[in-house]
Design a protein that fits this description.
Layout lengths: L21 E5 L3 E6 L16 E2 L3 H19 L9 E10 L3 E2 L6 E11 L2 E10 L2 E11 L8
Antiparallel strand pairs: 1-2, 2-6, 3-5, 4-8, 6-7, 7-8
């Protein structure tokens, strides 16, 4: 599916920690989001030296995962967003040490490898101007609501 998608309410991040600017396309297995937030001088993950370390691109991937899971759930009739916890990052590869704020927008791609009510695993990649900056896999769990019996 593609179109202007209101996604901000689908992730637990708000304000400056909502790092994605838009979702260009998604389907049952993938999402393509974009962001220019890496260029903001007050980026919440920017270091004291004024630079954004590429390791923080994993957070962009995780937010794309959250958006995708919520869009999938909403498409299946769910009304509430399931809370999730990022529990692992694997095979993370960084092609740069820092993200260049002047090289244009970030394209954030996530692909669902597996998902059920308990959690999900995704592969993610972040590109800038067609150049791969970061990739990896991430897992999230959906904690069960405590029963009040």
């Amino acid at each position: 599916m593609s179109a202007e998608i209101d996604f901000a309410s689908l992730i637990p991040h708000a304000g400056r920690m909502c790092l994605l600017d838009g979702v260009l396309a998604w389907d049952v297995a993938t999402v393509h989001a974009v962001s220019d937030s890496h260029a903001l001088p007050d980026h919440p993950l920017r270091g004291a030296d004024g630079r954004l370390h590429a390791v923080h691109l994993a957070e962009y991937g995780a937010q794309a995962m959250a958006v995708h899971g919520a869009l999938r759930d909403r498409g299946q009739g769910a009304n509430a967003v399931k809370p999730g916890r990022l529990v692992s990052l694997r095979d993370v590869q960084l092609a740069a040490e820092y993200v260049d704020k002047d090289d244009g927008r970030l394209d954030v791609h996530a692909r669902c490898l597996w998902a059920d009510d308990a959690g999900a695993q995704y592969a993610f990649r972040i590109e800038q101007g067609g150049r791969l900056l970061a990739s990896g896999r991430a897992a999230v769990i959906h904690p069960r609501e405590p029963s009040h019996d």
